[in-house]
Amino acid sequence: MASTRFRAVATAMTVTPVLVLSGVGVASAWHDPYPGDSTATCQSVGGRERIKVTVNGKPGGYYIQGTNAAGVHFHLGNITVGANGSGSAVFTGHSAGTYGVEAFENALGSGGRAPGCVGSVTVAAASPLLDAVDSVLAGAGSSALVTDPTRR
After folding, report:
1. Is 106 contained in some domain?
2. Within a domain: 13
3. Cα separation, 36 vs 24, whole angstroms
4. What share of the chain is helix, strand, coil (3-state, %, to 5)?
5. Which of 8, 76, 87, 101 could pair covalently with 81 via S-S, beta carbons 3.0-4.6 A apart?
6. What's the number of domains the chain is made of?
């Protein structure tokens, strides 16, 4: 009987720390610390060393934030949405890689994050030859045929 009791206590002492450390039975959900109140939506696209962002929302200014692969946030630029409800900009000088892109509606202050404007883009390396081809195509009125989507 003592041996059965000893086994039960030994098992409890072994299993309890494992359950506690593994988080078994603990439910948790990711909480967005900046949910935002903006109803704006965005389309972001990466090109060769460029990122193009189009914001559709209430007229006014929008702060565009980028995030690099190391998780460092930086000011990508600003976009002004006109009376037609749309605005876009191309931000240049970014090395090849994947970037996060977010927009914040300036008029809403700290609550201005636009959940419809959270995404990521892949930026390609520079290609002077393809950029020259794109310039010729755009100059000839064939911008729909350019190879860099940020130039459309």
Report:
1. yes
2. no
3. 32
4. 30, 35, 35
5. 87
6. 1
